[in-house]
C-alpha cells in the first residue's frame, strides 16, 4: 500500500482546504511530520484512517462523525477527506464526507445531511477515473479485503504509536494479551474457551440435575423402606453417586422381600386361628338360641293355660253371631221400610200445612184435580204477560228519545257558536304563518353574512396580538445576537490566552525522571511558569459552552420571530385593515338581528300546525250539525208510532189482570197454587205406599227369627256383631290356635329339649375370642399389604433410578470430557503445567514471531547488544505465555524489558513495532506496506543511538518504503530534509510541505 495524495477540507483543526503530496515526500524515503502541540499532526493521520475506514482511532470518534468538523470552517463549507493510494496494484481514490449540520437553504435554522462516500479506480488504459461504489458498507468491505487488516490493525501497523509499544514492553501478560488479541484477531480462540466453559457449565448443570433426580428417588426409596436403607453420603455431581444409589436400592429391595415373606406366614397363621374361633362362636350361638327357645315355649304354654276360659267364651259368642246372620236381611228390610214411612208422613204433613182450609180433608185424587184446574188458568195469561212487558219497553224507549233530543240540541248550539267565529280565526293564523316565513328567509340571509364576519373578527384579534408579539420577539432577537457576539469574542480571547500559556500548563504535569510529552526528555531544568491571569482548560471550555448556549438562544429567537411574522401576515390577509372594534360592532349587530329572526321564524311550524288542526275542527263541527238535524227528524216519526202501540197494549192488559195489580202478579198466584196442590197430592200417595210396605216387613221378620231359634226378633238383633267386632273376635281365636300349635311344636323338638338339658351357653367368652382372632388377622393382613406395597414401590423406584442412571451415563462421560478440555484451555488443569490459556498459547506463538522479527532491527539499533526473546515462564502466581525478555550480549544475562532505560525502551519499542508490522502484514496475506508513520520518542536517544535508529529506518527504503516520522526533536529537522510542517493559527491550521 502506497499513499499518493491527501486532500483535507474543514477537518479537525484545518478550517480550509489543505493538500498533502505523499509522492513528493516519499521520494526521499524518509520524511518528517512536525509542528507545535495542538497544530494537527495527529489529525493528518486521522484523515488517512478516516478516508480508508470511515472512522478515526480511539475516543476521537464520537457523535456519528459530527465532531470531525472543524470549528474554524465557514458555515457553507462541507467537511471532506479525499485519499489517493495504490494497493494490490490498483490505484484508488477514496472520498468521504461525514454527517453535516448545514444552514437551511430556505428560512432559518439548520438541517442534517447524511454522510457520503465515493470509491473510484484509475483506468490507465483510458486515462480516466471509473466510479466503483457509493455504499459505505461496500467500500468498507472492499478496503478491508484489499488491505487484509481491520482499522485497529492498520492503526498499529501503519501508524506506529511508540508510546503504546513502550507500555507494551513494561506491561504484564494480561495487557499484552489485549493488544495482541486486537492485532491478530484471536478472539475466536477466546470464543472456543468461552464455548467450552459454557458447555462444561451446561453439562455440569444437566449432570447435577440428573443426580438430583437420582437422590430424590433414593429419598423416596428410603421413605418406602424405612430403616432398611442407608443413603450414600454424596452430593449431586460427585462421581460414583449413581452406583451408590443403585447398590443401596438393591439392598433395600432384598430386605423388603424378606419382610414380605415373614408377613405372609403370619397372615396364614392368623387366618387359620380366626376360622377356628368363628366355628366355635357359631356352635355356642346355636346352643344359646335353642336353650332360649325352649324356655320361651314353656313360658307361653303356662300363659295360655291361664287364659283358656276367655277363649271358650269367645267361641260361644262367635257361634250365636253366625246364627243371627240368617235373620240379618229381614232386620235390615224392616228398618228400611220404617225409615221410609216416617219420612213420607213428615213430607205429607208439611205439604198440607201450605194449602188453604178448603183442601184439609181432600185425598190424593182431589188434590190432583185442583192442581190441573189452576194450570189451565195459568196457560191463558201468557199473551197478556208479553203485552205487559212490551208496554214497559215502550216507556224506556220514549225516555231514551227525550235524552237524545236534549243532547243533540246542546251539540247543535255549540257547533253553531264555534262556526260563527271561523273566518276570524283562519285569517289570524294565516297572517302569523306569513310573518314566520318572512323571518326564516331573513335568518338564512343573516347566517350567510355572520360566519365571514366572525372569521374576520377572529383574524383581526390575532393580527393585533401578533403585531405586539412581533415587536417583543424582534427586541429579543437583537438581545440574543448581541449576547452571542459577546460570548464568541470572550471565548476566542480566552482560547488565545490559553494557547499563549499552554507551555506552563504542560509543565505543571512534569515529574523528574518521567519523559516530557512534547520532547521526550527526562530532565526538566527550566519548566515554564504560569503567569498572572493564566487561563486553564476549564475556563476555556466554560466560555465555549456559554458561546454555544448563546448561539442556540439566538437561533431559537430567530425561529420564533419567523413564526410570528408568518402568523401576522396570514391574520392581516384575512382581516384586512378594518379596526377590530368596528368589526366587533358589526358582528354584534348581525348576531342580534340573526337571533331576532330565528325567534320569529320559530313560530312557523306551531302556526302551521294550529291552522291544520283548526280546519279539521271546522269540518268535524259542520258534520256534527248536519247529523243532529237528521236525527231530530227520525225521532219525530218514531214517537208517533210508539203512541199508537201503547194505546192498544193498555186496552188488552185491563181485561187480563182482573183484580190483581198486574198480569205478572196474577200469573204468580196461579203458579204457586198449582205447585202446592201438585206437591200435596204426590206426598199423600207416597205416605199410603210406605205404610203398606212397613206392614209386610214386620210379618217377614217374625217368621225369620222363629226359624233361627230366637224367641223374639229383638234377641236376634242383639246377637249380631258389626264388622269391626267380628274381625277382632276372629283374630283372637286364630291367634290362640296358632300360638297353641307353635308351643306344642317347640316342646316336641328333640334337639331343643336336649339343648335345654345341657349347661347354659357362655356367648360372651366365645365372642371375645372371635373378635381377638379377627383383630390379629387384620393386623397381619395390614402388615402383609404394607410389605407388598413397599416391595412394589421399591421395584418401581429402582427401575426408574436404573433407567435414569443409564440415561445419565453418556451425559456424565460427555461432562468429564468437556470439563477436561475446558480446564485445559482455561489453564486450570493439572495437565497444563504452565497454566496457559488457549488464546495465550496462540498469542505466545505470534509474540515469538514478533520478537524474532524485532530482534533483527534491535541488534542493529543497539550495535549487536540486545536481543528480544519470548518467555513462557510464569510470573509469580499468575499464568505464563506472554513474557518478553531482553538478552544483554555484554553481560550474557537475560532480563525483563521493564529494566531498559528511556532511550533503550524507545528503540526496543521501535524494533518491536516494525517487527509487529512485518508479522501482521504477513498475517494479512502479504500486502506490501510502502508507507509507514512513526509517532514520537526520538527525544530520548543520544546522538549515536539516533544515528543508528535513522540508519535502520533508512534501510526500510531498500524495500521501496517511505517512512514518516512524527516528532518535535529539532535535530531531526536538520537530519531529515523532506518535511511536512503543520502551522496553527487563529483561523485554523495549515500545511507547509518541503521536498528533498
DSSP strand tally: 17
Strand-pairing-aware structural class: alpha+beta
| Share of residues in strands | 5-15%
Low-confidence spans? none
- The total count of helices amounts to 26
Radius of gyration: 71 Å
Provide the residue-averaged pLDDT: 77
Helix content: 55-70%
- The coarse silhouette is flat
Spatial order of the strands forming the largest sheet: 2-1-4-5-8-9
* First-last Cα distance: 22 Å
How many strands, what sense, and barrel or not for the largest sheet? 6 strands, antiparallel
Briefly summarize what is shown:
The protein is of the alpha+beta class. Helices cover 68% and strands 10% of the residues. Helix 6 packs across helix 23 (838-861), helix 7 (187-225) packs antiparallel against helix 22 (763-826) and helix 9 packs across helix 20 (723-748).
Description:
- With about 1000 residues, this protein is an alpha+beta fold.
- Helices cover about 70% and strands about 10% of the residues.
- The protein is built from 26 helices and 17 strands.
- Helix 25 links the parallel strand 14 and strand 15.
- Helix 7 packs antiparallel against helix 22.
Amino acid at each position: 500500500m502506497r499513499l499518493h495524495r491527501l486532500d483535507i477540507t474543514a477537518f479537525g483543526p484545518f478550517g480550509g482546504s489543505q493538500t498533502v503530496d505523499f509522492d513528493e515526500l516519499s521520494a526521499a524515503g524518509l520524511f518528517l511530520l512536525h509542528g507545535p502541540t495542538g497544530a494537527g499532526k495527529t489529525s493528518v493521520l486521522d484523515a488517512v484512517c478516516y478516508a480508508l475506514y470511515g472512522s478515526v482511532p480511539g475516543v476521537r470518534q464520537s457523535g456519528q462523525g459530527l465532531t470531525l468538523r472543524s470549528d474554524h470552517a465557514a458555515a457553507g463549507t462541507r467537511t471532506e477527506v479525499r485519499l489517493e493510494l495504490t494497493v494490490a496494484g490498483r490505484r484508488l481514490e477514496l472520498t468521504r464526507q461525514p454527517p453535516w449540520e448545514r444552514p437551511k437553504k430556505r428560512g432559518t435554522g439548520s438541517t442534517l445531511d447524511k454522510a457520503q462516500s465515493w470509491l473510484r479506480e484509475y483506468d490507465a488504459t483510458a486515462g480516466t477515473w471509473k466510479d466503483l461504489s457509493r455504499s459505505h458498507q461496500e467500500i468498507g468491505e472492499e478496503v478491508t479485503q484489499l488491505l487484509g487488516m481491520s482499522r485497529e490493525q492498520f492503526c498499529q501497523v501503519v501508524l506506529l504509536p511508540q508510546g503504546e509499544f513502550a507500555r507494551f514492553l513494561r506491561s504484564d501478560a494480561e495487557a499484552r494479551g489485549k493488544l495482541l488479541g486486537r492485532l491478530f484477531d484471536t478472539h475466536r480462540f477466546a470464543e472456543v474457551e468461552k464455548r467450552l466453559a459454557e458447555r462444561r457449565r451446561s453439562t455440569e448443570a444437566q449432570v447435577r440435575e440428573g443426580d438430583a433426580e437420582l437422590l430424590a428417588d433414593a429419598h423416596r426409596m428410603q421413605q418406602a423402606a424405612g430403616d432398611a436403607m442407608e443413603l450414600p453420603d454424596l452430593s449431586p455431581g460427585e462421581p460414583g453417586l449413581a452406583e451408590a444409589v443403585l447398590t443401596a436400592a438393591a439392598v433395600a429391595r432384598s430386605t423388603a422381600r424378606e419382610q414380605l415373606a415373614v408377613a405372609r406366614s403370619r397372615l396364614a397363621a392368623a387366618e387359620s386361628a380366626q376360622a377356628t374361633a368363628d366355628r366355635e362362636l357359631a356352635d355356642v350361638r346355636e346352643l344359646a338360641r335353642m336353650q332360649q327357645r325352649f324356655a320361651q315355649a314353656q313360658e307361653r304354654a303356662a300363659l295360655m293355660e291361664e287364659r283358656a276360659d276367655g277363649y271358650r267364651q269367645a267361641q260361644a259368642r262367635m257361634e250365636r253371631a253366625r246364627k243371627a246372620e240368617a235373620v240379618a236381611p229381614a232386620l235390615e228390610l224392616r228398618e228400611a221400610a220404617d225409615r221410609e214411612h216416617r219420612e213420607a208422613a213428615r213430607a205429607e204433613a208439611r205439604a198440607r200445612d201450605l194449602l188453604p182450609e178448603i183442601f184439609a180433608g181432600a185425598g190424593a185424587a182431589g188434590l190432583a184435580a185442583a192442581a190441573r184446574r189452576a194450570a189451565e188458568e195459568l196457560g191463558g195469561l201468557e199473551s197478556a204477560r208479553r203485552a205487559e212487558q212490551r208496554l214497559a219497553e215502550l216507556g224506556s224507549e220514549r225516555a231514551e228519545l227525550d235524552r237524545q233530543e236534549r243532547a243533540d240540541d246542546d251539540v247543535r248550539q255549540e257547533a253553531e257558536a264555534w262556526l260563527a267565529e271561523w273566518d276570524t280565526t283562519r285569517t289570524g293564523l294565516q297572517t302569523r304563518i306569513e310573518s314566520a316565513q318572512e323571518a326564516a328567509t331573513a335568518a338564512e340571509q343573516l347566517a350567510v353574512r355572520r360566519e365571514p364576519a366572525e372569521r374576520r373578527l377572529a383574524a383581526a384579534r390575532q393580527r393585533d396580538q401578533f403585531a405586539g408579539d412581533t415587536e417583543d420577539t424582534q427586541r429579543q432577537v437583537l438581545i440574543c445576537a448581541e449576547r452571542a457576539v459577546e460570548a464568541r469574542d470572550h471565548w476566542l480571547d480566552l482560547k488565545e490566552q490559553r494557547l499563549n500559556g499552554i507551555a506552563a500548563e504542560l509543565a505543571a504535569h512534569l515529574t523528574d525522571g518521567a519523559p516530557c510529552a512534547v520532547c521526550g526528555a527526562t530532565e526538566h531544568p527550566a519548566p515554564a511558569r504560569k503567569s498572572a491571569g493564566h487561563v486553564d482548560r476549564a475556563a476555556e471550555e466554560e466560555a465555549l459552552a456559554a458561546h454555544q448556549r448563546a448561539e442556540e438562544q439566538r437561533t431559537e429567537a430567530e425561529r420564533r420571530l419567523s413564526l410570528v411574522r408568518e402568523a401576522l401576515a396570514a391574520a392581516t390577509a384575512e382581516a384586512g385593515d378594518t379596526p377590530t372594534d368596528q368589526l366587533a360592532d358589526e358582528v354584534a349587530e348581525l348576531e342580534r338581528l340573526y337571533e331576532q329572526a330565528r325567534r320569529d321564524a320559530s313560530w312557523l311550524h306551531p302556526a302551521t300546525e294550529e291552522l291544520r288542526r283548526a280546519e279539521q275542527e271546522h269540518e268535524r263541527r259542520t258534520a256534527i250539525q248536519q247529523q243532529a238535524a237528521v236525527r231530530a227528524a227520525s225521532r219525530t216519526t218514531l214517537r208517533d208510532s210508539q203512541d199508537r202501540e201503547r194505546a192498544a197494549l193498555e186496552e188488552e192488559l185491563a181485561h187480563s189482570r182482573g183484580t190483581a195489580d198486574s198480569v205478572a202478579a196474577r200469573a204468580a198466584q196461579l203458579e204457586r197454587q198449582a205447585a202446592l196442590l201438585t206437591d200435596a197430592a204426590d206426598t199423600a200417595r207416597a205416605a199410603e205406599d210406605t205404610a203398606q210396605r212397613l206392614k209386610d216387613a214386620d210379618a217377614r221378620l217374625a217368621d225369620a227369627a222363629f226359624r233361627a231359634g230366637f224367641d223374639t226378633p229383638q234377641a236376634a238383633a242383639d246377637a249380631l256383631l258389626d264388622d269391626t267386632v267380628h274381625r277382632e273376635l276372629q283374630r283372637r281365636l286364630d291367634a290362640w290356635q296358632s300360638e297353641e300349635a307353635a308351643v306344642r311344636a317347640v316342646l316336641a323338638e328333640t334337639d331343643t329339649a336336649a339343648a335345654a338339658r345341657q349347661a347354659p351357653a357362655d356367648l360372651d367368652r366365645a365372642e371375645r375370642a372371635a373378635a381377638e382372632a379377627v383383630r390379629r388377622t387384620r393386623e397381619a393382613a395390614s402388615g402383609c399389604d404394607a410389605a407388598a406395597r413397599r416391595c412394589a414401590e421399591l421395584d418401581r423406584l429402582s427401575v426408574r433410578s436404573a433407567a435414569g442412571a443409564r440415561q445419565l451415563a453418556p451425559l456424565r462421560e460427555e461432562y468429564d470430557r468437556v470439563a477436561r478440555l475446558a480446564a485445559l484451555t482455561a489453564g486450570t488443569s493439572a495437565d497444563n503445567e504452565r497454566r496457559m490459556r488457549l488464546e495465550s498459547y496462540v498469542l505466545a506463538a505470534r509474540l515469538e514471531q514478533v520478537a524474532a522479527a524485532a530482534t533483527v532491527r534491535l541488534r542493529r539499533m543497539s550495535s549487536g547488544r540486545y536481543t528480544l526473546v519470548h518467555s513462557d515462564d510464569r510470573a509469580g502466581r499468575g499464568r505464563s505465555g506472554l513474557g518478553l525478555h531482553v538478552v544483554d550480549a555484554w553481560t550474557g544475562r537475560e532480563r525483563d524489558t521493564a529494566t531498559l532505560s528511556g532511550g533503550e525502551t524507545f528503540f526496543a519499542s521501535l524494533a518491536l513495532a516494525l517487527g509487529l508490522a512485518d508479522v501482521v502484514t504477513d498475517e494479512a496475506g502479504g500486502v506490501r506496506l510502502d508507507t509507514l508513520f512513526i509517532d514520537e520518542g526520538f527525544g530520548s536517544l543520544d546522538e549515536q543511538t539516533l544515528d543508528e535508529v535513522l540508519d535502520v529506518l533508512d534501510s526500510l527504503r531498500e524495500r521501496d518504503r517511505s517512512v514518516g516520522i512524527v516528532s518535535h526533536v529539532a535535530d531531526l529537522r536538520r537530519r531529515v530534509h523532506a518535511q511536512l510542517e503543520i502551522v496553527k493559527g487563529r483561523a485554523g491550521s495549515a500545511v507547509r510541505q518541503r521536498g528533498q
